Amino acid sequence: MTLYRYIINEIWPTFLASLLVFIFIMVAARMLSITELIVTRGVDITQVLGMVLYLLPDILTFALPAVTLMSVVVAFLRLSADSEIIALKSSGISLYQMLPPVAVFSLAVFLIGLSISVFAAPWGNRAFKDLLFKIAESRADLGIKERVFCEPFDDLVFYVNSFSRQDRALKDVFVVDRRDKDVTNTIVAEEGQMIAQPDQRIITIYFVKGTIFAVEKNMDTARTIKFNTYGLTIGLKDVMKNLASRQKAPHELSVGKLIHEIQTTPKGDVQRSRMMRELLEKVSIPLAVLFMGIIGVPLGAQIRARGRTAGIGVSLAVFSIYYVCLMVVRSISSSGLVPAAIGVWVPDLFLIATLIYLLRRAANERRISFLRVRS
User: Fold this and answer.
1) Which among 70, 143, 159, 55 is positioned nearest to 106, based on CA atoms?
2) Whole-angstrom distance, CA of residue 114 vs CA of residue 120
3) In this predicted model, what pLDDT tens digit does every residue of 56-75 receive, in sequence order?
4) Contacts of 190-195 spanning 24+ positions with Cβ under 8 A
5) Rounded to two decimals, what is the model's pTM?
């Protein structure tokens, strides 16, 4: 038990430090898009903090396998560099006897990852899109000004004679819609009514008694359309193209809703393949944590180098191979070329094969050629 505690104490500090670094890097990458909301859309800082909070479950799901592998590799690299593994083997303790604490630690992280994947990630993804929709509603209310040309949304220019924020009614409306790359639509109407549809995450402006002037960008053709009523739809993509789509994606659905959608969607439908893949990945990706942790034992024990740089580099290389495999299989499974029930397990099978190979080589004191790192 003393040995087990010693190994665990070697792993968890690196695990926490690496996790914080991964979270910081991933949040910083997304902050480029979020900062645009702050600068150009006037988003409140509390809303930005909410976005970061909602992004965390997805970030953790992605980070846990890499962080678990890295922490175990660095721990056993330190034991190997200080010749402690040689001393343990001289005392009759094999590499296999060092696996239980790593397996228990990896199992605990796997259960955490599974809980995040099943419960927290769908909640975070839904809440993130809902927050963007609230920003869209707020932008519509604050961005439209009376008797002033304004652009509350990208490629949508408004001019209204009067606007009631209480009931969202517009009078004497002039709108230029340049969202279509081929056609520019100019709408002139006597009245308009703005209606939010949270379920579909869209805002629809219903115009009454007006005319649409449609002109192609190359100016070859133009047409005039008179209408009694006309609906202009504004989706999340008009608020922030890099962050949102208006439709609920499979990763926003709970396990129960995914199962229901799979049962009600015809076989052969691409959307059914995507939902099946998303459902199975809620288990397959957290399961990678367990395998990654155990793979770290032979990797760390076999590297002949001092310092953490070599361990981190090898860990990232192994994780990169796994991630590329995951992305390729995810794309193929989503398209329906390979059944999702088979495809999603390929990355885990790769990890299992790697685990068996590395453990057997390390336990039999056979050097792993690609780990001959020199300090």
Assistant:
1) 70
2) 9
3) 999 999 899 999 999 999 99
4) 192/160, 193/168, 193/169, 194/140, 194/168, 194/169, 194/170, 195/168
5) 0.79
